[in-house]
Specification:
Chain A has about 450 residues and is of the alpha+beta class. Helix content of chain A is about 50%, strand content about 20%. Chain B contains 6 helices and no strands. In chain B, helix 4 packs antiparallel against helix 5. The chains are: A alpha+beta (about 450), B mainly alpha (about 220). Chains A and B meet through strand 3 and helix 4 of A and helix 1, helix 4 and helix 5 of B.
């Protein structure tokens, strides 16, 4: 009896055991199936081998990822562009060598995890990080980073006393930062050194204005000599000198315009004398100066809009703007066609009241490929357009500076200018936006 | 078992204080960068004729004032609500004093630009290059003080003091050179302005010295 009871108990126990084993194994298989990447249930290996195989796989993958991560880290460390990363509390988690060089982080100061502001006292960088974090969108910002030298504890006594004025206390470097939001409120920043670019463009500008400066005096004397010669000569020599005089004057004008432009760019708002100007009067007076050329081509001006509208601006500068624009318009207008000027109040989303002035001619318009560049200095568009210019002997420009000057003056007034081809009339369509009152200094 | 919740309560309390302290410290450093920037702008305005600096400095000054008030209020709140002890308490009380020093330096920088504009009407005085050196020294002192504040480095006080002596000597020498000129043609304004400028620079250097000494106090608890 006891034996039967024993066997029965054993059988029940074994049954439970086998059942549990089976359940355990099937659960394990299921888990393997759902987690493993390249597991296929058809391989009929013992379960523990399958398990080992899977673990090996995972381990390999982990090693590969680790290696990848190391590579990337090494790459970032060696990158020619600066990179740094801060956490939610603006503590510096790490930065590469280039960033250290750009921001002049002292290698002697401890690089334990600490506030970025403790190591780099740059308000602009701080703002870039904050705006990136707040907006959770990539941001860019350009600024000039100043680094003030300081006395560190490691500087020896003698160094302090032998301080030379030639050693610069404050250094500056032009930077461009790109902020990227990362997970956990972290922010990554790429830093680009813009200093070489800045110096290059500055030296280019300087060279050019020095050159024009140097050209002005000899050109003036050449033109004076030519004028004197003109009186004493007979044809055909007289005609040659006449032509020479014309070309010389054109060069003088180019030089003068360039100098004007440089001056306007250097100090945009200081050179302006503000007064209240009625736009209609202004355009009429400009048109009168251009009348001789216009008559020759039989071109008329049509003014649309309120004749009482006024703007605050520098009269002589604005006259220059419309001279350039209308002169261009006449040149590219076919004979017997009109030039339109439309003036209206412009409602924009900003609170500043603006006036929109449009100049539209009936010519063929700009080449689409020229449009992005026409406000650049000395840019010449389509050669055929240029040829036509040469026909106009009395033309005042053709220097390639006209539109650049227009843009510079309008911007100095706090306005904007854009160029397009008019969708309806097909001709060149220049739009100027000017604030009605003098813009407040910000 | 009864201890645990209290202990963890203490823990969170400490953490909270620590976080608040770090935030205040960060604000002070931000304010420091702004003050440094306005000092730099006043330097550019004085010695490199950057007129735009005046407008920029006016904006900065407003921001600096805002930080000044905000930091002071925050410190007072922390002092009363969190009851910090030892170094934390010294840190807070020193910061309350230190922001005033910073704010003064900012004020001086603004005054300097005004004087610079007035001085531009006159031909550049020869002595200006020496004053520029003095201004550079003062900037270097401010930078050293701000680094000391970031690192909580008690040894900076002594180093900054050395520079303060250099600036004081420069002040005496320049004062002498300006005051005892003879046969001066024209109006007195440029001379007056130069005198005021070196006076302001000397004050700014003093405030920078104060900052570094307050850092020493935070760490060691000793005033010197």
């Amino acid at each position: 009896m006891a034996t039967i009871d024993f066997l029965l108990g054993l059988a029940v126990g074994l049954g439970v055991y086998v059942g549990q084993q089976y359940r355990f194994k099937s659960q394990l298989k299921k888990t393997l199936n759902s987690y493993a990447t390249n597991f296929n249930g058809e391989i009929s290996l013992p379960l523990h081998s399958l398990l080992r195989r899977e673990l090996n796989n995972l381990d390999l993958q982990r090693q590969k990822l680790e290696k990848d991560r190391q590579n990337w880290q090494e790459l970032i460390e060696q990158a020619p562009i600066g990179y740094l990363q801060v956490n939610a509390e603006n503590q510096l988690l790490g930065c590469n060598q280039t960033a250290k060089d750009l921001l002049k982080i002292d290698p002697r100061r401890s690089l334990r995890i600490r506030l970025l502001l403790e190591l780099v006292r740059s308000y602009d960088l701080d703002i870039l990080i904050e705006t990136t974090r707040k907006s959770q969108l990539p941001q860019t910002k350009e600024w000039i980073y100043y680094y003030t030298r300081y006395v560190s504890p490691q500087d020896s006594e003698s160094q302090i006393n032998s301080y030379e004025p030639s050693q610069r206390t404050v250094e500056s470097i032009a930077l461009k930062g790109y902020g990227f939001p990362l997970s956990n409120q972290q922010v990554g920043i790429f830093l680009e050194n813009r200093q070489p670019l800045l110096e290059l463009s500055q030296s280019r500008e300087r060279t050019f204005s020095d050159l024009t400066h140097e050209l002005r005096t000899p050109l003036t004397s050449i033109s004076l000599v030519a004028e004197n010669l003109l009186r004493r000569l007979q044809n055909p020599e007289r005609r040659w000198v006449e032509q020479m005089l014309q070309e010389t004057n054109r060069l003088i004008e180019l030089v003068q315009e360039w100098l004007d432009l440089t001056q306007l760019q250097a100090a945009p708002d200081r050179t302006l004398k503000y007064e209240t100007i009625e736009i209609y009067d202004l355009i009429q007076s400009v048109w009168q100066t251009l009348e001789p050329i216009a008559k020759r081509k039989n071109v008329a001006l049509f003014y649309h809009g309120d004749r009482q509208l006024t703007v605050a601006g520098d009269r002589s500068r604005l006259i220059q703007v419309f001279l350039n624009l209308l002169d261009n318009a006449i040149k590219h207008n076919p004979p017997q066609k009109d030039i339109k000027v439309q003036v209206s109040l412009y409602q924009s989303d900003t609170t500043v009241e603006q006036i929109k002035i449009e100049v539209i001619d009936s010519g063929r318009g700009f080449n689409a490929s020229d449009l992005p560049y026409i406000f650049e200095r000395l840019y010449r568009g389509d050669k055929s357009r240029m040829r036509k210019k040469e026909d106009n002997i009395a033309s005042s420009d053709g220097s390639g500076l006209g539109l650049a000057i227009v843009e510079q003056i309008v911007q100095a007034h706090g306005g904007a200018v854009s160029a397009n081809n008019h969708p309806q009339f097909g001709g060149a369509w220049l739009e100027i936006l000017l604030p009605v009152t003098k813009p407040e200094k910000t | 078992m009864t201890l645990a919740p209290r202990a963890s309560g203490l823990e969170t309390h400490n953490n909270k204080l620590e976080r608040s302290l770090r935030r205040v410290q960060q604000e002070v450093l931000r304010m420091g960068t702004l003050v440094e920037q306005s000092f730099r702008l006043s330097h550019q305005c004085l010695f490199e004729q950057h007129i735009e600096a005046t407008q920029k400095i006016a904006v900065l000054e407003k921001q600096i004032d805002q930080y000044y008030r905000q930091i002071e209020a925050e410190c007072a709140t922390l002092m009363t609500l969190q009851a910090p002890v030892a170094q934390d308490s010294r840190l807070l009380s020193a910061i309350m004093q230190l922001v005033r020093d910073l704010e003064r330096i900012g004020d001086c920088a603004e005054d300097l630009t005004e004087m610079a504009i007035k001085l531009m009407k006159y031909p550049t005085p020869e002595i200006l290059s020496e004053i520029a050196l003095m201004s550079e020294h003062a900037q270097l002192m401010l930078a050293t003080s701000l680094v000391a504040l970031a690192d909580l480095d008690p040894s900076a006080g002594a180093r900054v003091k050395e520079y303060d002596d250099i600036v004081d000597d420069a002040y005496d020498r320049l004062y002498h050179a300006i005051a005892f000129q003879k046969d001066v043609p024209g109006v007195v304004e440029p001379i007056l302005l130069l005198g005021l400028i070196i006076r302001h620079l000397e004050r700014m250097a003093d405030h920078a010295t104060n900052i570094s000494q307050r850092v020493t106090y935070i760490v060691t608890g000793k005033r010197n």
